[in-house]
Design brief:
162 residues, mainly alpha
Length: 162
Amino acid sequence: MRVFKIILGTLILLLLIGIFRFSAQPATQSNQLSTSVTEEIVNSMPVIRDYSEEQKTELVLNWNHIIRKYAHFSLYCLLGIIIAGFSLCFRISMHKRWTATLVFCLIYAVSDEIHQLFVPGRGCEFRDMIIDFSGSFLGSLAVFGIALIILKVRNRRERTAL
């Protein structure tokens, strides 16, 4: 269990650093990165191969915002998953584990948006906090839901074995 804690703790730290670094990018650099990711997505879709370059460019411009928000959601979903897994290493109630996970993720989402106030061209958006928190909520819900199912199955087997 100790190794598991160390691995998950390290993953949490690496993800927090990654999120911080993405948020520290000036708006132009951040937009260039998300645009290049969106271009890769658009160009990898077989349905779009026959589109003209102008049509592909328009798709990239239209989808870039959605891809950026999806990246927010996905990173925080992963954060929720890893922190929830980390919390399972401790002997506390499931309610306290989930509460601690969500509070931590919410505090980090808020601090991340406040951090962006100090980055050129970036700002603090309440909508992004909601997207981030929603991702961590869903990720942690999945982990705790699976954990509860495993506990119920294990308890049922133990009762039938008696």
